[in-house]
Structure formats: structure tokens, C-alpha cells
Amino acid sequence: MTAALRFRNLTLGYDRHPAVHHLDGAVESGALMAVVGPNGAGKSTLFKGIIGVIKPLAGRIERGDPNPQNVAYLPQAAEIDRTFPINVYDMVSMGLWRRAGTFGGIDRGARSSIEQAIAAVGLAGFENRAIATLSGGQMQRMLFARLLLQDARVIVLDEPFNAVDAKTSADLFDLVRRWHGERRTVLTAMHDIDFVRENFPETLLLAREPVAWGRTANVLTPENLLAARRMCEAFDQQAEPCVDEQTSALAPRGGLADAATHQPRR
Amino acid sequence: MSTLYQIFIGPFTEFEFMRRALAGALALALGASPIGVFLMLRRMSLVGDAMAHAILPGAAVGFLLSGLNLFAMTAGGLIAGFVVALLTGLVARTTELKEDAALATFYLLSLAIGVTIISLKGTNIDLLHVLFGNVLALDDQTLLLIAANATITLVLLALIYRPLVIECVDPGFMRAVSRAGGPAHLAFLVLVVLNLVSGFHALGTLLAVGMMMLPAAIGRFWARDITRMMLIATVSGVLAGYAGLLVSFHFGVASGPAIILVAGVLYLASLLFGQVGGLVRQLFPGRHLEA
Asked: Do A71 and B224 touch (CB under 8 A)?
């Protein structure tokens, strides 16, 4: 097994405040992994780091496949301007960016794969509908169709089943299973613990720091979940600069100085 | 027949200045209307207006140094616009003022400075020329400048179209798949300035964005997808240019305002009767469909 992603003492954050702190480990190629944690645990931040939108404050992310186009990313829907006058077909066709780019043409083969992707998420007949007229669930189906077209080896989904009904999430999770069957690596941020227990073989429980990572049954224990919640409540505005034990053997690693800021030691 | 000919075509065959004005107005509409659609969709409608005012002191300094000289005024305008954009960004980033407030303060100051400079040296006619342009007095150079700007706009817009659209509708996706989003946005801003300069020469600083925003707003009432929106915007811009010049010719009113007023009439009609969100349609939506 090769690693699709490897985190090496990874710290990600904003304004020097870490949102993901000292994460170490590897995501095996072909893994189906849930990322679970309270709000503010750093799930979205981790994903943005993986696709390279934010740079690590410290440590690094190694990709098995260095081509950034081989990671497909589904953000939380809030980033889409839903009033923009564009229809479902054009929106889905963005998934062909890797093949078509800025200037490439959309030939007959590409058109048929667009239509197949739209049909696969159950939106056949919606091709000419403006995205402003879609419901939340239909919107999410459309974004999954775009992901299908992206045809990436690593797929990162940020809370894909929030605010969609049971039928929609079941349909969409079928696609996730299909990707898993195709040996693609899928990382999914999730809130529904029971759903994770039933459907994800592997889980990372995150509370800025990794609380536990491994087989889902071993990770989602009551103790771990409680610990995760406690750690997230302990966010400290007045945090001291973090001194990494790997850069300085002298300094102790502070328990609740997790929210520390990264800067050179004075 | 001959009366129709005299009303709709005669002015242009008879008078060279009308032909020039028509060419200028059409070129302006071709470039500015699609740009206006993107400005509107990016919720930057008023930014264009503010920038149009911001270029005035530069154009005025150019005027002060070398009279109504095309290149001096264009270069001055570009520099002034650039400085205001830079200062706005600086203030917004370093103080509590948000971008809109920072831009508002600078463009108002710019407008005041510009008008002061012109009134120091020029006549009221010059001031009117700068404020309202003079599409009836386009010389060869200005006409070429407007035509060149329209050409550059259409070509460059075609080149950056895909990343620009994606950047507008889903910036997160664009960031994830490509780095082209940022450069596309920058190129778009350059096009905005180019078309403001065109608009400045034809319609003056106060109405420069008229040829951008009114056609764009018209398009929004008739189309649900951006391609058709830009087409409708461009057609209404062209129509407003043509009809506005006729109105100006037959009724002896100022040409720039006449063009914008015709666009305004089209806009009001769209506001009332537009298929997409027009008022009449909202009041009487018709029977709903089966599915």
C-alpha cells in the first residue's frame, strides 16, 4: 500500500493561530476515511491544506501524486454564488477543467460524459435549469456530478451531506462507495457519528490536534469524543508562541497551549 | 418612405460627424456591454462608476498641460485611476474603513480636484466636454482608441472567459483546480479601465459607465444565462447608441445624455416587462406549471 497523502508534523492555521496542530500520519491510497470533530476542529482547514489553498504554518503535506489536479475538492456550499446566471450543464462541465482547461474544446465524447455525470446523480432533465432555481439537495447532486467528471484519484468532501435529506445523502453516498470501489482515496468531513460508524472503515477524530486516528470502531469511543469536545473548548486568545518539541528538545509541549501561535522562540 | 429614410438613415449619410459618432458609439457598446455584465454579476456596478470619476484629475492635469490632447488626457486618467485604486486598497487594508468607503472618499476627492483644475484654466465648454464627453466631436485618434479598446476587450474577454466565469460563480473551485483565477480577474480589471477611458472620451466622466451598466441591467431582465445576457446587453447598447444619436440630432439635445436616456428607456421597459423578474411578470406570473 502506498500513501496517497502523508502529513508530517503538519500545522495549518490563520494569523499564526493553528487550526490543525501537529498532525502526523498517512492516508493510504484507496482509503475511505471520515474526518470527525466538533465545529472549529480544523476539518475544513485540513482540507484546504490538502488541496493547497492554504500553506502550512509548519510541517508539510506530501502527496503520493504531485499533480494538484488529481485532487478533487467539494467545499461547503457557501462559497458558490447561487444567483450567478449559469445552468446545471455548464456548472457540471467545469469538472472537465483538467482535460479542457482555459482553451480546450468540449468534444462529443466530453459532452456525453457530462450527460452521464448528470444522469448518475439523478439530475437528468435539469440540464438547462439555472442554478438559482435548485434546492439544496439538487445543488449538492450537481456538485457531485462535477466531482465525477473531475475523475481525480483523491477526493476531498467537506461536509457533503449537511442540509440534504436522507434520500439525497443515500444516493450521493452510493457515489462515494463507487469511488471507493474504484480504489480512489476519499476523505469526508462528517458530523453524523452514527453514519460514520456504519459506513466509514477509517476515521480521523480531530480537535485541532489529532485525538485518534485509525479504525472507526477504535476511534469513535465515548472517551475520545469527550476529549475532542474538551480540547476544542479550550481555545485561547492569549496563546503563547508554540515551541515545537521537534525544533527544541528543551521546551515541554504545553497541554492546553495547543492554541499557541507559531513563531520563532525568543 | 423618404421621411423614414430622412429620420433613421439620413443624418448618418449626410453628416460625417454623425457617422463618426455612430462608429464610436457602436464600438463603445461592443466592448463596454459585456464588461458591464461581469461588473454587475460581481456586484461591482458602483466600483466602475467610482473609478470613472477617479480618473478625472489625471485627465484634467493632462488637459492643463496640453489642452484637449487625447494621449495626455488618457495617460493622466490611467495614472489617476491606478493611484486611487492603490490608495483605496491601502486604506482598506490598514484602517477600519472598508473598501467601499475608502473608494468613495477618494473618488469624491478626485472628482473635486479634477473639476477645480479644469475650471482654473479651461472654459465652461471644456468642463462640459470633460464631464459629459462629446461623442459628436470624435477625431480620428479618439475613434481609433475606442475601436482598439473594443477589439482588445472582445479578444481578451474571449481568452479569459472560462476562468473568469468560474472565478465569479465558484471561486473556491477555481482556486482548487487552477491558478488562472487571479490573473483572469486582474485582466478583467484592466479591461474595465480601458472601457472607462473609451467611455470617458465619448460620454464624459459622469456618464462613462452608462454604456456598461445600463445595458447589463437590461440583459439581466431578459436572460437566465450569462451568454445570452451579454448578447442582449450588447444589442441594447448598440440600439441605445444609434437611437440616442438620432434623438440628439432631431431634437438638438446633448448626444451623450441622449444615448444614456435611450438606454434608460430600454431599461425601464425591461424593468416593467422583462421575462426574468420583471415587475409585470412578478405581479401576473401566469398559471404555474405541472412540474
From this structure: no
A77 close to B (CB below 8 A): no
Answer whether B171 sits within 8 Å of A87, measured CB to CB: no
For residue B224, the chain A residues in CB contact (below 8 A) are 85, 87, 130
CA-based nearest residue in chain A for residue B222: A85
Q: Is B99 on the interface with A (CB under 8 A)?
A: no
C-alpha cell at B195: 472601457
Sorted by sequence, the CB contacts under 8 Å of residue A78 that are 6+ apart come out as none
Q: What confidence tier does B28 reach under pLDDT thresholds 50, 70, 90?
A: very high
% of chain B residues with pLDDT over 70: 98
Q: Does the interface ipTM go beyond 0.95?
A: no
CB contact under 8 A, A73 and B165: no
Q: Is A81 an 8 Å CB contact of chain B?
A: yes
Best probe of the B interface among A92, A94, A135, by most B CBs < 10 A, is A94
The CA distance from B216 to the nearest CA of chain A, in Å, is 13
The tens digit of pLDDT for each residue in B47-60 reads 888 888 888 888 88
A17-70 per-position pLDDT tens digit: 778 888 888 888 888 999 998 888 888 889 888 888 888 888 888 887 777 678
Q: How far is CA A13 from the centre of its chain?
A: 15
**Single pTM value for the model:** 0.82
